[in-house]
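Here is one chain, start to finish.
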Amino acid sequence: MLLTWPVVAAVLFGALLHASWNALVKSSADKALDTALIHLVGSLIAVPLVLLIGWPPAAAWPYIIASVVIHIGYYIALTGAYKHGDLGLTYPLMRGTAPLLVALSAGLALGETLSPLAWAGVIGVSCGVLALGLSRHAMDRPKAVGFALANAVVIAVYTVVDALGVRATFGAGSNAFQYVVALFVLDGWPFALLVFSRRGGAVAWPYARARWPVAAGAAAASLGSYGIALWAMTQAPVATVAALRETSVLFAALLGSWFLKEAFTLRRVVGTAVIVGGVMALRLG
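Its structure:
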């Protein structure tokens, strides 16, 4: 499997989509409710899609069920991180640490080996991503850092599980998008029901009615982003796709600067340059 330029372009577009819906969550008044609503709407969007393209084969279902359970932990850690820290801090920490964990585990779980240049690319992207988020003030937000690092582990776990699942789907003669839409049909409900029950109907439903247009756009972006990423994992090594996807941090930093008024400092410029170098190493490796 090779990381070709068309795959690179697709994953970069998916990265932009991913950063966009995360920025919407960060800008919301109730991050847990928005996260729950986005993924509940994503489940509803996926229903007609799964009726159109069909369910994945039986080989995929153990991975889908495992991924749904793992994603509950992801949503809990995500809302905790955004509650206690800036998008510019927490998002890079979550997304920058995960590719290294994926690369380290891909050899055992997926039988993949990376070239030295590809390893340099993974490390370069991760270091650049971390440079965008880490600062001397990072430890002033220990809860945010703790949630973000815990979520990095969760991200690495579900990435490997979903890579195995989508490849099982692909190997059974089906396509990656059957796996993705089936996952989204089930994925949004557990966390949404948990949050809605805690908030109560008097709070949750008026909020949902007011925010559903925004949630629909974010849900479509989330579905598109993850669909592109999992499709790419059937075309290229999982570790390189996982690292390339984290260029979403560049878009998140720009969105945070433009729309959330977070500072874009010299450190972030350096981090951006390191990420670009890492992307080139991934492609050449």
